[in-house]
Specification:
By secondary structure, the chain is of the alpha/beta class. It contains 8 helices and 5 strands, in the order αβααβααβαβαβα. It has one domain: TIM Barrel. About 50% of the residues lie in helices and about 15% in strands. Helix 7 links the parallel strand 4 and strand 5.
């Protein structure tokens, strides 16, 4: 991929940090630094996420699964440290399906994303929340409830088309 990017002149990269934070490729940042890239943003995906259908990502995406939360938060913390080391201002992640019709789960999502935004802010970063299956109104309500200076939205039109077609 690095060779293909070089051939076509790509210099700005939205860098996946899974190889470092989850797959434990300790030389990953060293390999990234060999290239003349500007890391415009970094991103972290979580191991349990299954994008094979809309239903599977709804139940496995982001911070939704309770049994994965602590491990995923450790991955997110590691990603924050790596992104800060790379001097990128943003770290993106799919936080999961926002469902305001389930108030208890919705509040849990707010609390977990607030902790992620706190961690991002502590590292000089802004958490970019990937958009997904929620409506614009649901996302707006979530952002207003979250009300955090280190949280923003990474608007992904492909997800909107996929989910709302």
């Amino acid at each position: 991929m690095a060779e293909a990017a070089r051939r076509v002149g790509v210099r700005y990269i939205h860098l996946d940090l899974r190889p470092l934070c989850i797959n434990r490729q300790d030389d990953y940042l060293e390999r990234v630094r060999r290239h003349d890239w500007t890391i415009s943003a970094a991103m972290i995906g979580f191991p349990q996420e299954d994008y094979s259908t809309l239903d599977t990502i709804r139940s496995t995406g982001g911070v939704v699964p309770d049994d994965c939360w602590r491990v995923n938060m450790r991955f997110f913390e590691a990603a924050c440290h790596a992104a800060a080391e790379l001097q990128t201002p943003y770290l993106s992640a799919h936080v999961g399906f926002l469902d305001p019709s389930r108030p208890k789960q919705f509040q849990k999502m707010v609390d977990r994303v607030r902790l992620m935004a706190d961690t991002a802010g502590d590292n000089g970063l802004v958490l970019l929340m990937e958009t997904g299956q929620e409506t614009a109104q649901e996302l707006k309500g979530f952002i207003e409830r979250l009300d955090h200076p280190s949280a923003a939205v990474n608007f992904d039109p492909a997800n909107v088309l996929l989910c709302r077609g």
